[in-house]
Write a structure and sequence with these properties.
Layout: E1 4-5, E2 11-12, E3 16-17, E4 20-21, H1 30-38, E5 41-45, H2 48-59, E6 65-69, H3 78-82, E7 86-90, H4 100-106, E8 111-117, H5 127-137, E9 140-144, E10 152-153, E11 156-157, E12 164-168, E13 179-183, H6 185-190, H7 205-213, H8 272-278, H9 285-291, H10 296-314, E14 320-322, E15 336-340, H11 343-349, E16 357-358, H12 364-367, H13 373-381, E17 382-385, H14 393-404
Parallel strand pairs: 6-7, 6-8, 8-9, 9-12
Antiparallel strand pairs: 1-2, 3-4, 5-13, 10-11, 12-13, 14-15, 15-17, 16-17
Helix pairs in contact: 10-14
């Protein structure tokens, strides 16, 4: 492990986030270099939704329509509405692929753009067919890779597959905020930065609050990674004997209350509009400096390892199905999503494991429309298991093994949405095999088959 020099010339190992070395304020490398080498044109934002707003501004005009999958969080449509656009939804299939027939029927002369989604960090099934359909119908493609800032196929980030793409940084990293806007070469020539684009020039109260509150806790217990940064962490590096260096747990800033941007609304207390507006900002300087101290390869390796722990331990349970199956090379999972026959009972078993939840909170239009029965069924039955890189792998393995042994008395039950919904996926025979289909890669490396928002 590389060591670092601190005041007085003494050298010490960098602090750890779980098993991942944290190297704050490294001069080069880190996530920013990862993006520079792979992503072409991209811009930083305070959130993925703020990035989506500016990306759509290049592709659309007020009064046009933007279609998004029905299986998405409710706040995703807020930047669409802000631009004077009409949001619409299209159905998805049980394996998270787009219902191409439904999508084709919904595209009309007013449809300017269609969004695809790389769910939980993996490439969306049938993405090539979706891209072909959009090219045929003359619609722009928005690649929502909010869960996938480090996932690549053929060396290219999943967010670069569209005319514009987005990714969310707090979905993978211990940062207070951060989003990415990926721009294709054609769109980059027309892109005009807004006041939301870029990184703030200095630290602010929200950055200090984020560090002092250490809001990210190990999902299996214990103190959060930022609390373990110690004397060489970002606060200590802000400058000698200045006021920020002297802030402690009892300082006024530590008693300020509230949540960092990445945590806004996760308790359901704020509506989608409020959550969007709260994250409508440029990116924190703390986020950028933190990203420069993180090794992306370490993060990918740790998350894939933790995903494999869940998959190996729970593979024998007949009441669970792994939604993503095996992970293709280059995929960095945001979480380990499983479909539970009895989600309430499984959540009870998971009591005490932080970061476990259903996903997502669906838009009102989806909750009330029979066409989107598959999305509603998935939102009820998909349980997200944590794979954070700062997990203690021994505790994770012990928890996963305990849950894996909880198979006594479990009966085989048919899976799938109820046949009452008109979505074509809802009329398929329920899956009965224990092993979900793998995501197969086509000749071009794309799959052929994305934390609460």
């Amino acid at each position: 492990m590389d060591d670092v020099t601190i005041a007085g010339g003494r050298r010490m190992a960098p602090p750890m986030i779980g098993s991942i070395p944290f190297r704050p304020f490294r001069d080069s490398g880190g996530v920013e270099t990862f993006l520079d080498e792979r992503a072409g044109e991209y811009r930083f934002y305070g959130s993925a939704k703020a990035a989506l707003r500016d990306g759509l501004a290049v592709l659309t005009h007020p009064g046009e329509r933007v279609l998004v999958p029905s299986y998405l969080p409710d706040a995703v449509v807020e930047p669409i509405r802000e631009l004077g656009l009409e949001p619409g939804f299209y159905a998805i299939d049980r394996n998270l692929s787009p219902d191409l027939g439904d999508l084709d029927r919904r595209i009309d002369d007013r449809t300017a753009a269609v969004m695809s989604v790389a769910y939980f960090g993996a490439s969306q099934p049938e993405i090539e067919a979706l891209v072909s359909l959009l090219e045929e119908r003359g619609c722009a493609h928005v690649a929502d890779a909010a869960h996938s800032p480090l996932s690549v196929v053929d060396g290219e980030p999943l967010g670069t597959l569209g005319d514009v793409g987005i990714a969310s940084l707090p979905k993978l990293f211990p940062v207070p905020d951060g989003g990415l806007l990926f721009l294709s070469a054609d769109v980059a020539d027309r892109f005009v930065p807004s006041t939301l684009t870029g990184v703030r020039g200095s630290y602010c109260v929200d950055d200090v609050r984020f560090l002092l509150k250490s809001p990210i806790r190990d999902p299996l217990g214990g103190s959060g990674p930022l609390a373990r940064l110690g004397g060489s962490g970002p606060l200590a590096r802000l400058g000698g004997s200045g006021p920020l260096a002297r802030l402690g747990a009892n300082s006024p800033l530590a008693r300020l209350g509230g949540s960092p941007l990445s945590d806004i609304g996760t308790d359901g207390s704020n509506g989608p509009r409020e959550r969007y507006l709260a994250a409508r900002t440029s990116m924190s300087r703390l986020t950028l400096d933190t990203l420069r101290g993180i090794d992306p390869e370490d993060v990918v390796r740790a998350r894939r390892r933790n995903y494999a722990v869940w998959r190996r331990a729970l593979a024998g349970r007949p009441d669970l199905e792994f939604l993503l199956g095996e992970l293709p090379e280059g995929i960095c999972p945001q979480a380990c999503p499983v479909v539970a026959d009895d989600p309430d009972a499984f959540l009870t078993e998971l009591s005490g494991v932080d970061g476990v939840h259903r996903w997502p909170r669906l838009p009102t239009a989806v909750r009330s429309e029979p066409t989107y029965g598959t999305a509603r069924w998935l939102a009820e039955h998909v349980i997200v298991l944590p794979v954070h890189q700062h997990l203690d792998v021994r505790e994770l393995s012990a928890t996963a093994r305990r849950l894996g042994r909880s198979v006594e008395g479990l009966a085989e039950r048919p899976r799938g949405p109820t046949s009452s919904a008109p979505n074509r996926a809802d009329h398929r025979s329920p899956a009965t095999d224990r092993e979900p289909p793998r995501i197969e890669l086509g000749s071009d490396g794309q799959s052929s088959g994305h934390q609460r928002s």
